[in-house]
Automatic annotation (TrEMBL):
Family membership noted in the UniProt record: Belongs to the DprA/Smf family.
Span of domain DprA winged helix: 320-378
InterPro entries: DprA, DprA_WH, DrpA_SLOG, WH-like_DNA-bd_sf
GO biological process: DNA-mediated transformation
Name assigned to this protein: SMF protein
Ranges of residues in domain Smf/DprA SLOG: 100-312
């Protein structure tokens, strides 16, 4: 027997090669088996070897590991839907930069074996080597604030420039900003970025991140455990969060509400022995509640990317610091009265003793410059 150990749950790595249609068919039949969880499938592989060896067994042999009804379903000839998916996958994998990586391949990311249910098959678009280096996950709210987006981008740029790959989920808000910052930082260091998605690797969701996805594939990697053509479904995104947590040495939560998928990712990371970091915010900000909850539960409070690097023992590897965005006109008009905490227009007028029209004009200028954020209710706060 080759490729998989006869005992134990983990495979012996074998070199990744160009996959044949028969090989892809065997793996897809296995991953598409209904009623069998990853644990049962791994036990079958550990017992019988690679999928083509497993599928060559008899029902009577398989029933030593799984129920008879599941054994018969697994050994039944593939239907037209499965064969169409096989054809689609073979064509996709033939495109340069596209990879079908299985649990038996040497290229399979070893950190994923810390999961109780590691994916049997990964679809990777981009550079396989992007999955092999030290990584930090960054997650947060989709409806992020301007400050949160700026923080995510700045942290990711420094961390990537220091040699860490930034792992996130390609979602709107914090995820997208983290990927953007990591791509910028990769130009200064050895880092990069990995996007773990909740659709097939041949789809981009959300659609507005199509250009970003192409740049990630060119300079990092896009990873999915879902079959090609699979649309995004609500349960896919919490499921992919476990891969984000497993791939990284730690998870940094930038902004999160008290009930947030980012907190699930943080919990999964902690359960696997990964570090959890959180950026604090205003006590008045709803998207700081989740970060503050994590800090109370033991997450490490970080204020700069350097804090994260120090925790990871990489303090001397930081790239040059990124200067914050300037605040044109702030000293002349608002001084220190506009802080990172939300403040009303009336309060600003009272503090500065300036007429409302002058304050509004200055705030508009600062908002257009990306230095001030206007919140619902005519409330403002400083971004950087």
């Amino acid at each position: 027997m080759t490729g998989l150990a006869a005992t134990g749950a983990n495979p012996v790595p074998v070199p990744a090669t160009t996959r044949s249609a028969a090989d892809i068919e065997a793996w897809l039949r296995l991953t598409g088996a209904r009623g069998l969880g990853t644990g049962a499938l791994r036990q079958l592989l550990a017992t019988f070897g690679l999928p083509h060896q497993l599928l060559a067994q008899t029902v009577s042999a398989l029933v030593a590991v799984i129920p008879e009804k599941h054994a018969r379903a697994l050994l039944a000839p593939p239907d037209a839907v499965t064969m169409a998916l096989v054809e689609r996958t073979v064509a996709w994998a033939a495109v340069p930069g596209n990879h079908v990586v299985t649990l038996a391949d040497a290229a399979y990311p070893r950190p994923l074996l810390d999961l109780s249910d590691p994916p049997l098959v990964l679809y990777v678009k981009g550079r396989l080597e992007a999955l092999g280096g030290p990584a930090i996950a960054m997650v947060g709210a989709r409806s992020a604030t301007v400050q949160g987006v700026e923080d995510a981008r700045r942290f990711a740029r420094v961390l990537s420039g220091a040699g860490l790959s930034v792992v996130s989920g390609l979602a709107l808000g914090i995820d997208g900003a983290a990927h953007e910052g990591a791509l910028e930082g990769a130009q200064e260091g050895a880092g990069g970025t990995v996007a773990v998605i909740g659709t097939g690797a041949d789809l981009v969701y959300p659609a507005r991140h199509r250009d970003l996805a192409h740049r990630i594939a060119a300079h990092g990697a896009i990873v999915s455990e879902f079959a090609l053509g699979m649309p995004g479904r609500s349960h896919h995104f919490p499921q992919r969060n476990r891969i984000i947590a497993a791939l990284a040495r730690g998870v940094l939560v930038v902004e999160a509400a008290a009930r947030s998928g980012s907190l699930i990712t943080a919990r999964l990371a902690a359960e696997m022995g990964r570090e959890v970091y959180a950026i604090p915010g205003s006590i008045h900000a709803p998207l700081s509640k989740g970060c503050h909850l994590l800090i109370r539960q033991g997450a490490k409070l970080v204020e700069t990317a350097q804090d994260v690097l120090e925790e990871l023992g990489m303090a001397g590897q930081a790239a040059r610091p990124v200067a914050p965005a300037p605040m044109p006109g702030l000293d002349d008009v608002l001084g220190l009265t506009l802080t990172h905490d939300p403040v009303t227009l009336d309060a600003l007028c009272a503090r500065t003793a300036l007429p409302p029209e002058q304050v509004v004009a200055s705030l508009l200028e600062l908002e257009l410059a990306g230095a001030v954020e206007r919140l619902p209710g005519n409330v403002y706060r400083r971004v950087s």
